[in-house]
Specification:
The chain is mostly helical. The protein contains 9 helices and 2 strands. It is globular. The termini are far apart.
Amino acid sequence: MKKSVRFTGIFYILDFQEKKDRKETAMSKQLFSLEQIKQLQKNPHVWKVSERTITYSDAFKSQCIDEYLAGKTPRQIFEEYGFEIKVLGMKRVEQASSRWRKAYEKNGLIGLTDTRKTSSGRPLKRELMMTEILERQAARIELLEGQVEMLKKLEATERRLLNHCQKLSTHKIFQLISDTLNLFPFERMVTYFARS
């Protein structure tokens, strides 16, 4: 519909406001109520929840991948782990599942870890002192020892699985990494271990 060229300032502003309202309606997201937030916080697979977002535990993400690869749908998986689809919304469930699958295909288990918890910030731009270099080398040695321990566990597990003709699930791999990190108190090293 074509409008007359003689717009006054008020009509033009009203027309602009209508377009803006339509855009906001189309782009709105489902918000969680306080009651829903409390309900979601009780779920052991939720790490953090706000009125707009929900952050799932890394273990839950790896379990979802395992279940999905076993043939279950995202809806079935979320319902089995205690989530109400009416509260989350089917779109949020499908998008989370899709995002995790893509991250897993691209980076393996490392793609499923929440790096916001472990990011180390900006790199240093100054020269390191001798004591700092020695501390870093000691930490590197400890890290390599931890990697050797993890590889020994993985090799033993792999031999056991080959004898029984089973495939190691992502959940089991995640558990092995977690056990190694509990044995050696590495900080912010989940990403490093998951790559190796």
